[in-house]
Amino acid sequence: MLLLVLTIKVQSDHALVTLRDRTRQVSEVFGLESLQRTRLITAVSEIGRNALQYAGGAVVNFLVGESSIRLGAEAVVVQVVDKGPGISEQVIAVRSSMSIPGKAQGGLQGSRRLVDAFWVESAPGGGTTVSLEMMLPRVAQRLTPALVTQRIEQLVRRPPQSPREELEQQNREMLHTLQELRRRQRELEQADERKNEFVAMLAHELRNPLSAITMALELMRRKPILDKGDVERYCATIGRQTDQLTHLVNDLMDVSRVTRGKVDLERTVVEMNALVGHAVEMTRAFIDAKRHDLTIESTAEQLWVDVDVVRMKQVVSNLIHNAARYTPASGRLQVSVSSNGHVASVAIRDNGMGIEAAMLPKIFDLFTQVDTSLAREDSGLGIGLTIVQRMVRDHGGSITATSPGKGLGSEFVLTLPLVGAPVSVAVPLEVAVALKVDVPARAGRRLLVVDDNQDAVSAMREMLELSGYECEMAFDGATALAMAMRRQPDVAVLDIGLPSLDGFEVARALRTKYGPQVVLIALSGYSAPEMRKKAEMAGFNSYFVKPVDFSALTNVLLEIPNASGHPLAAVQPVAAGADRCLGG
């Protein structure tokens, strides 16, 4: 929903001065950043000039409200409406990449490049409406009707600028923009350096577990006799290192989703002291292994917050784990819960390695590493704190870091808005899991397992056969479809990226042939919502992200009588657990 802020008419060159001035004022009062303001002023001025030249004038509407391009975001929208002859071949005019060498691109094409969203509605002889959208920064205050009314009143009280004042203002903006562009160039150069360091570090972090796995497999091949103890020891090594690889991949996927605003929060009202207690338990083994002295200070009062419980527990445990990680053995850690006005606070203090003053402003930046030496211990990828900050912001909270200096410890303080106590308290997740009763696998069901990775599909077939299922396997889409047409499977477990025919094509063919009588389970290395939606449209019942959690897959197979014919959403909560993970 968009709310109208103000309307002006452009009927002369002098009105273009007013248009620039009003665009600047709207941008300022609603919180656009400096460079955003300059870009929007330039684009709106160019479109207004076009309307004056080709249509004799226009009406310009300034609106604010929900963004058209990002769910949950808000934006300033400017609509330039004229009653001119319209634009023929408007799509070509807007999207053409043709330009004159040595000349800046203007008009519709140039303006489109300056804003976040741009669209044209026009018909020959019917006038033209050009809409320009600039998204408000994440830190901007959320818009409410009362807030919009208050800022409209601020705009009404602002006096218009004279042409001379407008020219002086343009000169100041140009100088400021030049400085801002230089600053951003330096930041991009620094970010590129951090990215290169990150790629090198990622290669290092991936090679470590791969090396351990390779050595364990080589020992199993070379030993003439393997007793039970050997097998258990090597399997434990491979299992631990595989978990580490999975953790690294989940970190990378999480930072991609969080920074692009693609995370859906499943909020519920929980008590802060209890949430922190669970987060401490998640890191207790690591703390004990380093022999740290941990002190927890809770509040006597109950502090209720509205959060995604899984992700917020992982945020807090990430901060505690970092404190334990960067504190030498037998150190002191303190976790304190408190309230201040309308917010709940969690402070995590340590007496560890501390943070240098020059590093503090960058500590939450992507790929930032406090210690990049070769001797560092358990360093991670430098993305955990970035995810923490973005996730806390998405919950309406804040996160700060302070340190007296190197070797003097550090403190991270997390704040979240307080809410009223819930009417009823849900059963804790841990209790719900404990109440689950294991059901033996149902033998005799025919499964078709398809993946172009032959090692992976062979291992999955063996695992499923150990659970009592009858399995066939195929390594490409065409072979899989031919096998399924000869003999109907009860379940088809399909990799998405298959040669000859992809998993979507195979799924659609099986749905056409057998309808809901076949349960379709998708396997993919992609976890994006768009891919899940495509799988749903192709007829899949469930979607798993690789590497597959075999227990979760077994749970889905056990529910086959209830899942047949249901849409993807019916079993989505079971499959989604594989990628609800936060970097640590």
Distance between the termini: 38 Å
Q: Total number of β-strand segments?
A: 17
What's the CATH topology name of the largest domain?
Heat Shock Protein 90
What is the CA-atom radius of gyration, in angstroms? 29 Å
Identify the overall geometry.
globular
In spatial order, strands of the major sheet run 1-2-3-5-4
**Share of helix, binned:** 40-55%
Identify the CATH architecture of the largest domain: 2-Layer Sandwich
Give an overview in words.
- This protein is of the alpha/beta class and 584 residues long.
- The protein has 4 domains: 2-161, Histidine kinase-like ATPase, C-terminal domain (Heat Shock Protein 90); 186-259, Orthogonal Bundle (Helix Hairpins), CATH 1.10.287; 267-432, Heat Shock Protein 90, CATH 3.30.565.10; 439-579, Rossmann fold.
- Helix content is 46%, strand content 19%.
- The strands form 4 sheets. The chain has a 5-stranded antiparallel β-sheet with strand order 1-2-3-5-4. It has a 5-stranded mixed β-sheet with strand order 7-9-10-12-11, with helices on one face.
- Helix 9 runs antiparallel to helix 10 (384-394).
- The protein is globular.
- The two termini are 38 Å apart.
- 30% of the residues are buried.
